[in-house]
Amino acid sequence: MARFTLEEFNERQPELVYIAGTLTEVQQVEIALSEKQIDYALNIESFHKESFLGGTYPGVFFYVSAHDAQDSLSLIHI
Question: Pick from 36, 48, 54, 56: most CB atoms within 10 A?
Fold first, then answer.
């Protein structure tokens, strides 16, 4: 298992599997992927949050290879 930048991960056909809006979510997703030894890439991007306050917020976007996408989605239960 290794963590990469999105630029380093591009040759693996990255697929977005999670957008973490809090540090707690980031830690939980990293633990879940690390325990299953799934390589992933992180990228900080803005996302629009549908809520009472709405707005655009920074988030940590988690990408895995297309090969690991289904397994990764089943691991992330936040």
Answer: 36
DSSP-derived pairing of the beta strands 14-20 and 40-48: unpaired
Q: pTM for this one?
A: 0.85
Q: Which of 48, 47, 42, 49 is nearest to 17 (CA)?
A: 42
| pLDDT tens digits for range 33-53 | 999 999 999 999 998 877 777
Cα 45 to its chain centre, rounded Å, is 11
Q: How far apart are CA 56 and CA 10, in angstroms?
A: 26
At residue 73, the 3 state secondary structure works out as helix
DSSP for 21-37 reads: -SHHHHHHHHHHHHHTT
Cβ proximity of 63 and 15 under 8 Å: yes
